[in-house]
Amino acid sequence: MRPARLMKVFVTRRIPPEGRAALAKAADCEVEQWDSDEPIPRKELERGVAGAHGLLCLLSDRVDKRLLDVAGANLKVISTLSVGTDHLALDEIKKRGIRVGYTPDVLTDATAELAVSLLLTTCRRLPEASEEVKNGGWTSWKPLWMCGYGLTQSTVGIIGLGRIGQAIARRLKPFGVQRFLYTGRQPRPQEAEEFQAEFVSAPQLAAMSDFIVVACSLTPATKELCNKDFFQKMKKTAVFVNISRGDVVNQDDLYQALASGQIAAAGLDVTTPEPLPTNHPLLTLKNCVILPHIGSATHGTRNTMSLLAANNLLAGLRGEPMPSELKL
């Protein structure tokens, strides 16, 4: 009796150990991995995906029509190690009947923790203060030196009250936030009830909030939602934080708002492009804290994400229900 033909799986990056182990145990798969922590060059991606039955990819891997054509008719499953899917040509994928797995829920807590950390770091000017210690700027205790803004009795506006938006609000509430506002496609009264959050338009949220946290998905409706008009409506003392996607913000407009003192400060875990060039104007500003997209970067979360991505891939290849399938 002839042995069953192995299914070819291509993995576009080194992934955390739990996911790697799950794939290694799959006796029905032949797994090839781009063995690097750096993004795979496009030519290598095309070579690796050719003839593959399954693809495990990252946010930085653009899966477009050309790549799908190169992959060919064998490709049945794409599993992305992310909750975001804006790197996938979903219409084209749907046309071809390819199933898609993703990793929602598992990174909610880690991302919400990072959002709160970034908000506090930005509003209390921690990187700036730390630098003053190192460069000799700390000469004595001064009543007005290094003053920032506190959360007590404040109004916090959240753009996108989904899983992550709610988790951020839940963590901010004990800081004594007086009022939560949120905006999005539609009111979410059940989710908002826990925080007595009020649904308002984006311009209203900009005008009324002391702190704004962007936690929405990137869609045509949210692309550059935070632009010159948005920043002009914000308070001069307001702090802006983005942990969603870089393209939700017009970065040139943000730079002007920060440089001119139109808004107090900004904290970004996401930018356009990623990585942000080291000569980008935003990096010259003391009132802008930029992190390298580390929202889900805890050991536990990344391991859980990799295991879920591997299990999504294997279930899809075997024609079984995926633990987390994106319904197309």
TrEMBL record:
Residues 117-295 form the D-isomer specific 2-hydroxyacid dehydrogenase NAD-binding domain. GO terms for molecular function: glyoxylate reductase (NADPH) activity; hydroxypyruvate reductase (NADH) activity; NAD binding. Residues 9-326 form the D-isomer specific 2-hydroxyacid dehydrogenase catalytic domain. SUPFAM superfamilies: Formate/glycerate dehydrogenase catalytic domain-like, NAD(P)-binding Rossmann-fold domains. The keyword ATP-binding does not apply. Pfam families: 2-Hacid_dh, 2-Hacid_dh_C. InterPro entries: D-isomer_2-hydroxyacid_DH, D-isomer_2_OHA_DH_cat_dom, D-isomer_DH_CS, D-isomer_DH_NAD-bd, NAD(P)-bd_dom_sf. GO terms for cellular component: cytosol. Keywords: Oxidoreductase. Gene3D superfamilies: NAD(P)-binding Rossmann-like Domain. PANTHER family: 2-HYDROXYACID DEHYDROGENASE-RELATED, GLYOXYLATE REDUCTASE_HYDROXYPYRUVATE REDUCTASE. Belongs to the D-isomer specific 2-hydroxyacid dehydrogenase family. This is Glyoxylate reductase/hydroxypyruvate reductase. It comes from Chrysochloris asiatica. The gene is GRHPR.
